[in-house]
Automatic annotation (TrEMBL):
Component of the eNoSC complex. The keyword Cell inner membrane does not apply. One of its GO terms (molecular function) is methyltransferase activity. Coiled coil: none annotated. Residues 52-114, 148-235 are annotated as: Disordered. This is Ribosomal RNA-processing protein 8. It is found in: Nucleus, Nucleolus. Residues 383-478 form the DCD domain. Pfam families: Methyltransf_8 (PF05148). Keywords: Methyltransferase, Nucleus, rRNA processing, S-adenosyl-L-methionine, Transferase.
Amino acid sequence: MFEEPEWVEAAPAIVGLRPVTTQVQAATAPPVKGRKRRHLLATLRALEAASLSQQCPSLPGSDSEEEEEVGRKKRHFQRSSLANVSKEVGKKRKGKCQKQAPFISDSEGKEVERTCHRQAPPLGGISAGEEKGKRKCQEYSYLHPTQSLNSVDQTVHNSRTSTATLDPPKSSRESASPNSSHTLSRKQWRNRQKNKRRHKNKFRPLETQDQVPLKASIEETEVPPAPKSDSQETRAGALRARMTQRLDGARFRYLNEQLYSGPSSAAQCLFQEDPEAFLLYHRGFQRQVKKWPLHPVDRIAKDLRQKPASLVVADFGCGDCRLASSVRNPVHCFDLAALDPRVTVCDMAQVPLEDESVDVAVFCLSLMGTNIRDFLEEANRVLKPGGLLKVAEVSSRFEDIRTFLGAVTKLGFKVIYKDLTNSHFFLFDFEKTGPPRVGPKAQLSGLKLQPCLYKHSSLPKAARCKSSIRKRIEPLES
Ligand SMILES: C[S@@+](CC[C@H](N)C(=O)[O-])C[C@H]1O[C@@H](n2cnc3c(N)ncnc32)[C@H](O)[C@@H]1O
């Protein structure tokens, strides 16, 4: 695509700087008129040169050579008579235009010709055509950013590397007429400077519109996040841990309540559907029991270690099999979910054991459902006659111990030992006397234990629960 150099756009037609059209127009223009114009122009140039000699400041970089050239020309203008100057300038410019023409291709020539006609300004000042040209350039630079950038690059490069005095920007046309720069007039030089500036300005919108946002976006993506200080990270980590712990605590309390407030079949469904809930429940339970002075299972294990290791034990609601790990006895472990490979997953209301097959049946904090009777009857079934039933339960769950013990007795047991000394749990030993002494429809209200609920530590004390309930749950709090 043709790239229109701005120095052509801005070149004043009156000084004959229409390189392509000069050949045609020089032949057709009346000589007297042309001579007069040239004369007038030269006069103007001389006057301008005289004023410039006092105004023109030193320019930075490679422009100093151009400045020297201007200075030389100024001196020359001052020395020469106006008439001579006008002739010389006229000849030079005519010659220059004629020199440039052959190096421009047809298509370029026509385009440049059109440009010159269209944009030739009247004498002095910026014409409407020039303004139009400016607008066109701006439009062009937006429409053809790459070409504009290239031309700017070339301009910058040329201004740096140019050793010739007034080299115009190197476009294809310019490179075709390397000597033309030596014959540029002062006004041409000024126009060229103007055009250079315009080239630079042309570059600016591209930079601001396209490159700056890009830079900004790169910065946005590349700039790493401000490093957090150690203390910030520690605090964030601590807060996260605290929140996680709170959430786990809330879920544990919910699950615990579910286990105490419904039948074992419902608890079984709960953990079957959500095995993770079982893990969560046990984490919560372990957290609570760690605060106790003594874990009841350890006390039971201690008792068993004083008995023959040959005794077969059934652990109802074994949890993590801590009992089985603490004794040498064979232990059948039953629970709603398995935290350990030794666990047989089942509802302890129905364990897969033969009748009268075990010596010891253990319920350590596991009488949780509303069907406690089912559990105790199942234990009676699998226990050998004279077998040992050991129960450890949270002390606050018992409203009336005597009623409880009486109900257990009706199910074919005899109380042989009780320990109510511990602050957190009660311990009972029963001996199997025989099958249950009451039918399935008999009411055994003593077996109804209070649920063991865990209070929310962040609640105000008055809001937690009634004093009686609080009393019941206290053993599980520290
Ligand atoms: C509080 S934990 C005690 C665990 C263990 N006995 C200990 O002392 O470390 C109660 C356990 O009984 C289990 N459990 C409650 N009801 C059950 C049921 N119907 N069948 C089997 N296990 C049950 C629970 O799943 C839980 O693992």
